[in-house]
Amino acid sequence: MQIQIDPSQLQPSRGTSPALSERVMWLNADRVLYVGLLGVPSVRTFGAFSIYVSLRSPHRICVDGGEWEETLLSVVPPYVGHRIESEDRMICNILIESETVRLRDLPEHIRTGRGAVHDAEALATMRDALDRFKRCATRQYARTEEFDENFFGGALPARAIDKRVDAVVDKIKCDPNSHTSAEECAVACHLSVSRFLHLFKVEVGSPFRSFRTWQRARSVLYYVTQNANLTNIALDVGYPDATHFSHSIRQIYGLTPKSIFAGCRRLALYGSGAAASPRSGFN
Fold this sequence. Notes:
Elements: E1 24-27, E2 31-37, E3 48-53, E4 59-63, E5 68-71, E6 73-76, E7 82-86, E8 90-97, H1 108-111, E9 115-116, H2 120-135, H3 144-152, H4 163-174, H5 182-188, H6 193-204, H7 208-219, H8 230-236, H9 242-253, H10 257-263, E10 268-271
Parallel strand pairs: 1-10
Antiparallel strand pairs: 1-2, 2-8, 3-6, 3-8, 4-5, 4-7, 6-9
């Protein structure tokens, strides 16, 4: 499947970036690239660094209840609520899992970004990266580092995590749909529950429960092109019922599962690495 694009959209016009006409998503366990419909989300709270790039007209963003800002590029830190809207129906959204990067060495616009980012160089890099992605025949990155090199000009610095906590993180990311408890993880780490929870937050940067909740909601992205009953998908990804599923997904994405799946009907989905295969029905 080839992406079709108006060549004129590859040239900056009034400060806008090139747009991909095809709706597409690429993801692995560490990164997500989404180019597709924005919808009309309410407050959304992702457990990852979120980068928004306008494809044509600027978007407006409101972070943590602050003032609305108009911009072509914006960044929101992990677990920070925000709202976004745009006259353009399409948006580019990149997610960077925070436990995979060393915060102090991130590019400044990501490390300090909290809303609108007015960085012409960073915006140009994103434009070029989208163009390269469009021209890539396979639309695949074998490693996270390759993705980073394309979109950020180099591999983002890896975060060093305590080996015990790192094993727990890997377990949750490999099987986010399981009901792994803090008690089980504490035993595996040979720690008390309170000590494990403290160490996890220090090493990962978020509470254990928040991380587990985000990873479960994130795993839904592997299902969005499936034409399946939402109740069955809810059970497949580890939610006890459709009501809990709908409530949790809306809190994180600012959209109901029904809206998300409806907006992804024409989405081309690509994945890489081990995380791309364990979800049932993922191609």
